[in-house]
Amino acid sequence: MIDKIVSDVRKGVERRRQKVPVCNLPARKSRVLSLSEAIRDCQHIPIIAEIKPMSPSEGILRQNLDVVALAREYEAGGAIAISVLTEPKYFGGSLENLVEVKDATNLPVLRKDFIVDEYQIHESAAYGADSILLISSCVRNKLSNFLSIANDLDLETIVECCSAPEVKLAVDAGAKMIGVNNRDLHTLRVDLGVTKQLAKYVPSNTILISESGVRIAKDIRFLIEAGANAVLIGTTLMRSKKPEEKLREFVQA
Q1: Catalytic residue among 97, 124, 210, 212
Q2: Which of 50, 73, 100, 123 is an active site residue?
Q3: Residue 241 appears among annotated catalytic residues
Q4: Residue 52 is a catalytic residue
Q5: Which one of 25, 114, 125, 232 has the minimum C-beta count within 10 Å?
Q6: Phi and psi (nearest 5°) for 206?
Q7: What is the per-residue pLDDT across 197-240, written as a single tens digit (0 to 9) for each?
Q8: Of these residues, 160, 196, 244, 246, which one is catalytic?
Q9: pLDDT confidence of 253, banded at 50, 70, 90?
Q10: Is 160 a catalytic residue?
Q11: CA separation for the pair 198, 188 (Å, rounded)
């Protein structure tokens, strides 16, 4: 599945590059907001709330999705940032959703996608992202270069890791925020224990964000006690009939 997604993403990037080269991307219009500061300054449990219209494993997560209304509910519920899936084929996302969320809220916005080409980093800045996700297994030996490009564009980065060697590579490359995905991207199996296993390899001055698998408040308590500084939640909030209330419950977990 991952190989197929990445292959399709590359094709999409090339189509967009041919249509709008880097030199013709729009100039950034919005001010950059710091995700790392939002996490450090938070007075409750820092939750990054995700807008993910669908997933390969569970299909459509929310019918009749109003991206702006949901983003505002997330903000009202206490989210410290909003993650926006922009991959269209498998996750139903779009860059337009990212723009709408950025315009509608006062929170840092994370572009979450399978970033495999530096064009996507320039694109993220042009469309108003404050930070981006770099999946270690997808960027591989390009990680240091991608981190440098993002830094030059004033974009913060979360480097997503699924193993101790990936965490070490991320730390050595200069990652300031590391995301641990509790979902195995190849089997789609979820295990919250992955965060606990990998937390010991993350330096104390590096922000650790736990991703995937949260369903109840108890899960959040487990992840924070395991060493996470923040938690990214997608599917549970997307499926919730009252996401604002659910978030209020989670941030006080």
Answers
A1: 212
A2: 50
A3: no
A4: yes
A5: 25
A6: -110, 135
A7: 999 999 999 999 999 999 999 999 999 999 999 999 999 999 99
A8: 160
A9: confident
A10: yes
A11: 18
DSSP per-residue codes, 37-72: HHHHH-SS--EEEEE-SEETTTEE-STT--HHHHHH
Over residues 151-199, the pLDDT tens digits come to 999 999 999 999 999 999 999 999 999 999 998 777 778 899 999 999 9
Q: Choosing from 83, 131, 181, 210, which is the catalytic residue?
A: 181
Say which of 112, 176, 196, 246 is annotated catalytic. Answer: 112
Flag whether pLDDT at 11 surpasses 80. Answer: yes
3-state SS record for 192-218 = CHHHHHHHCCCCCCCEEEEECCCCCHH
CATH number corresponding to 2-251: 3.20.20.70
Q: Catalytic residue among 73, 166, 211, 244, which? A: 211
Q: Is 196 a catalytic residue?
A: no
Is 211 marked active-site? yes
Asked about 112 being catalytic, the answer comes back as yes
Domain residue spans in the chain?
2-251
Global pTM exceeds 0.90: yes
